[in-house]
Design a protein that fits this description.
The protein contains nine helices and no strands. It is mostly helical. About 20% of the residues are buried.
Length: about 140
């Protein structure tokens, strides 16, 4: 397989509006998707001492989403069987991820890694205060 051709094909498909996937659908059932899909990648990166700041940013983004309001303060319909519990923990914590991380059936042992907790906290405090800050966080080198 030619990696360059494959990347071109993937980008072409992603540009096709006919196969768009609404963000709301991707966010549904996050309390089952995050532990099954995102956290294993984070644990693998940690075990291999690979950069994981962007994986932490993804965790922080989902935590920010759980507040059920967008960056302009408009309501978001969080579709999750545990939406109320997650929203309450997200609001209680604000920029502190620990109330959400205490839900170990969702986040596992993530709260025990001080470096990950610090990056998630910093992302909640800084990256989501404006769209420009989020762009900056994504543009910076992966780090950690």
């Amino acid at each position: 397989m030619d990696p360059t051709a494959y990347c071109g094909t993937v980008l072409e498909r992603l540009r096709n509006p006919g196969i768009g996937d609404p963000l709301a659908r991707l966010c549904r059932r996050g309390s089952t998707k995050v532990p099954d899909y995102l956290l294993p990648s984070l644990h693998d990166a940690h075990a291999q001492d690979s950069p994981r700041a962007r994986l932490d940013l993804a965790v922080a983004a989902w935590m920010r989403y759980l507040r059920a309001v967008d960056l302009d303060g408009r309501p978001i319909d969080v579709q999750d069987a545990r939406a109320e519990e997650l929203r309450d923990a997200a609001l209680r914590g604000g920029d502190d991820p620990r109330p959400l991380l205490a839900l170990t059936d969702v986040f596992g042992d993530l709260a025990t890694d001080d470096a990950d907790v610090a990056v998630i906290h910093r992302s909640l405090a800084d990256a989501f205060d404006s769209r420009g800050s989020l762009r900056s966080a994504l543009a910076s080198p992966p780090g950690v």
